[in-house]
Amino acid sequence: MPRVVFTPAMQRHVKCPPVDVAGTTVREVLDAAFAIHPSARSYVLDDQSHVRKHVSIFCDGRMVRDRTRLAEAVSDDSQILIVPALSGG
Amino acid sequence: MALKILAATRKGLFTLAPNGTASNPWRVERTDFLADNVSMVLADPRDGKLFAALDLGHFGVKMHTASGYGAPFVETATPAYPPKPEEANEVDMWGRPIPWSTVRVWGMETGGADEPGVIWCSTIPGALFRSSDSGATWEIVESLWRHPKRVAWMGGGADLPGMHSICVDPRCSKTVRVGVSSGGVWMTRDGGATWSNDNTGMWQDHAPEEFKFDPNGQDAHRLVQSPSNPDRMWIQHHNGIFRSDDGGSVWHEVLDVKPSSFGFAVSVHPKDPDTAWFVPEIKDEKRIPAGGELVVTRTRDGGKTFDILRRGLPQEHAYDIIYRHGMDVSASGNDLVIGSTTGGLWVSADQGDSWTEAAARLPPVYAVRFMEV
Questions:
Q1: Does B80 touch chain A if contact means CB atoms closer than 8 Å?
Q2: Beta strands A3-6; A79-84: pairing state
Q3: Pick from B56, B75, B80: which is nearest to A47 by CB?
Q4: What is the CATH number of domain B3-80+98-372?
């Protein structure tokens, strides 16, 4: 199953260790991860469920560019990494 | 009951308490959210509950609440915007889409004494939220957010429009007035079902002729209402000081205020509608205290004359800005506090005649509140 890893910078605010969850797109995988860590959702996504302006998501080392639909495909052994963007200071 | 001071700053929430010594009468008693950006704080005198609005930068706005002073803060619901319809293609002055997402909590007030649990919260981009369960859940005030005139609001102090002032009328809790930078003053008389900004008198000299007097374009920096005579309202406006004697329908410009009528903060005496305080700065392009001297101005006659109060405030190379929520007055009307962008915090126990430095090097101060515990 794809693995979602939340940045250590989030752990100070909300405890969310890595999770292995099912899904075929970034959106599906994240939704499954937020089902386990519901408090983490608003740290990554804004009120419209788009990726927050100063959060970056990487899938297998590539930055996810579709920040609104999150429709990019993921494979069964993908790793999705959620990190603070340097644009956020 | 002891008077304490809550200071929301760029790097945490600080609570100051009386120190018991004449030379150093205040001390920081408690810190919360150290290193985090706290944009707003509210103490609900009806039940003792505290609210702190955080702006975590990367991770967005988060609301925290504590059941009382000294109790731990826990994260609670944050005001959130409704789904943005595809056809809502509203844009800011640079043509960028207006986000339907909370960027900053810029105002919080309790509902009336007859509305336990009601909390109002205002945000950037300019919206008003209401909670009827002490912040456990929030609802956007749809009637104002969907108002056709709302999309004409512009940024003022921030790129996006922001609602910063909420005045719940002490005579009727369903009458609420709000101040917007830049969207003027809006009023509801039915608890938020309908709104109007049908007022006159405010004007701004920097706007084109067609918009100078447009009530929907006014940059009201801060709006306050007199508790003892709620028809008396004061505005520290981008273009000066304005006073209303009829609950905000007609605004009168207050002229000849030295050293300046520009500023952000205003407080009104809780028992005397004619007494109000302001913190002047050199107008607009500069935004520093005139001559590097930090002063507070006070009128006691409804704006006809002003005292310049400086005793105890820094008078040499002081470039402190007091933001719009950076001044508060206690319930007695005797105590004042101001907190500055350079981390200074000063307290007066004599209505501003003299001031004592309570803290010298806090992080930049966004909001101060007196709290009785």
A1: yes
A2: parallel
A3: B80
A4: 2.130.10.10
